[in-house]
Amino acid sequence: MIYLDNAATTRTAPEVVEAMLPFFSENYGNASSIYGLGSASKKALNQARRTLAEALGARQEEIYFTAGGSEADNWALKAAAETYKDRGKHIVTTRIEHHAVLHTCAYLEKQGYEVTYVGVDENGIVRLEELEAALRPDTILISVMFANNEVGTLQPIKEIGQIAHEQGILFHTDAVQAFGQLPIRVDELHIDMLSASAHKVNGPKGVGCLYIRSGLKLGSFIHGGAQERSRRAGTENVPGIVGFGKAIERAVAIMPEKIEREKRLRDYLIDLIYEEIPYCRLNGDRDRRLPGNVNFSFQFVEGESVLIMLDMKGICASSGSACTSGALDPSHVLLAMGLSHELAHGSLRLTLSEENTEEEMDAVVEALKEILGKLRAMSPLYEDFMKSRKGEGHVQ
Ligand SMILES: *Cc1c(COP(=O)(O)O)cnc(C)c1O
Q: Mean of the per-residue pLDDT values for the chain?
């Protein structure tokens, strides 16, 4: 098997699993209890909180554990909207956010909030002028993702943070794809709230966190007990949180090496696809992208068909299309970047980890050549195209 879907989820690192195990068995105590068994859990929670805080340049009391990235996004947006509604009911976000942000915004619109969805350029980078122009006296929140999960594009977070703070507007970033992958300092970047998730960085699924800058009066999301400084009730997921802490400790330790290795492999794969496969287009900025992200559109094919045929060869990848109600919706990210429906449907996302090898990249491109050859041979559009235009080239 060749696993190239690390933006969807990652393999839990063996040392992470090992760190978690005792908290299922001998150290099963409730972290809120007084006795020794509980305090072992409490200690482990605090250790994980310190690790995460250090990784962000934050203080440990600014880290709140959640049940994942989606919960952190929901919390940040809904609580900010509720808390600051007397100041205004306008929110600014982008057209390329994860659905955890977009669908939360749609929900808030139903509650009477107004949301402006700022566009991106052809490489998927947020247009700063458009963002600035969207701000109003009643704007209470800007939410822009750190790195896009489909095309990997890195956003001008520091500039956006500066704009937000100059105007006294809260700034939230969904950093699920970036935390543990790239260095992040919340102060330098003017970030007030940041969402992260463990399973995108070799940690366990179902655990994440929301960084909330101290002094920010954000209401709680889950009501109940006094856990997480009364802001997020519920008995803590101690094994999950321990795993998150270990995953981030590991990620920080290997970060420079991992970035360099993934970038090299990424660029190797991009060059090889361009060399070997005609009529394709790299989606997203060539350089300003996540070290492990490759996203191509192939003309005359459906991404979904490519995926199925790759799966038959033991290759795990992803396409931007989402299957809703039996129909394939093209990626909202690629459409926002100005791609035609056809090219948006023909997209393929390959996301690497530090475990992938050059041999795997060679094998994937071999497989793609064969698959695209077969699919295009069956495509009437391709046939017409070849009849009308002889020769080879890349789509611009
Ligand atoms: C995966 C992802 C999420 C959701 O995180 P979960 O922990 O799976 O809920 C949110 N935002 C982005 C950008 C993601 O890639």
A: 95
